[in-house]
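Kindly review these tokens for lecture notes.

. . .
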Amino acid sequence: MKLKRRKKSSKQLAEEVKKVTTSPIEKSKKVEVKKVISTGSTLLDLAISGNRIRGGGVPGGIIIEVFGPPGAGKTAILAELCASAQFKKGEVQFLDPEGRLDKEYCKIYGMSLSEKNYKRPTLVSKVFDEIQKWKPENNKEINVIAVDSLAALSTEMEMEDKDAYGMARGREFSQGLRKICVLIANNNWLIACSNQIRSGPEGEFTPGGKGIPFYSTVRIRVRERQKITVTKKIGDKDKEVKKVIGIHSICYIKKSTVDDPYREAPIYIVFKVGIDDIRGNLQYLKDMTGDTTYDCVDKNYARMNEAIRYIEANESQNELREKVIDLWEEIENKFLMNRSPKKRW
């Protein structure tokens, strides 16, 4: 007895083709690191790729997700990445669903935005439309698309109250990311996204489904550790007054296929300054060497503010950075695994 094969409809065939052409592409275990841009923090750059390239940094051709609670420094990291890309002659597209970025904030970080490279999409689909139609002129450098934040994006179904189970957004993220992952890699673009955190029965998670964590090459969890305060004496009686001038946050590399994951890096964000790399480097040298003063390359100071002023006055930022990189590499070398090649049988 012969079995008759059912002919597939054109709709079924189209669906099968769609599944094949949009399925995830196997990624290499290690991302190629030739050029990088900076997060504005030497220590965070090193935590991301310090063993792949001297000084570390963020390579192109990947998606990076920076997530954490409000006010921890997520937007600051995205702004620093954009400014670094522009400094190196790359182009930037800033997508701001939250609509909170202003000109003064951009000026602090040295980021140049106009109507041409600043958009405010509100839907997940619109973000992917912007990515797919983007045609930067300079493809020799790392070009950046920043999205701040993914949690603020919605879907048409959600807007029309047709997404009863809240699944549409995650589905659209997965489909969109699957389509653009090759585009990003081939053009050496960096897609830098911020995201919020939520709590559920299984612990902490980020909005937008599982597609974002899967397709992100680097995921950084940012949390505020403490406020940065200064004390000044006011008036004839020298009354001490304290003021918060910034925040000290900890960046934890939750996922990385660029370099070793699970590293931590402190960042210091000072209001009207941005990520204070000098402060971070001075504190790192003091903490890691056990010194009681701040090492300013050729001189030491007991107070942080005096040390910062000396470094800036003498333009010793590069020398200080090199000293930090040397120490970081020295520490990393202590943990190298000197093992023989694995035997196969």
User: Anything to note?
Assistant: Residues 15 and 282 are 58 Å apart (CA to CA).
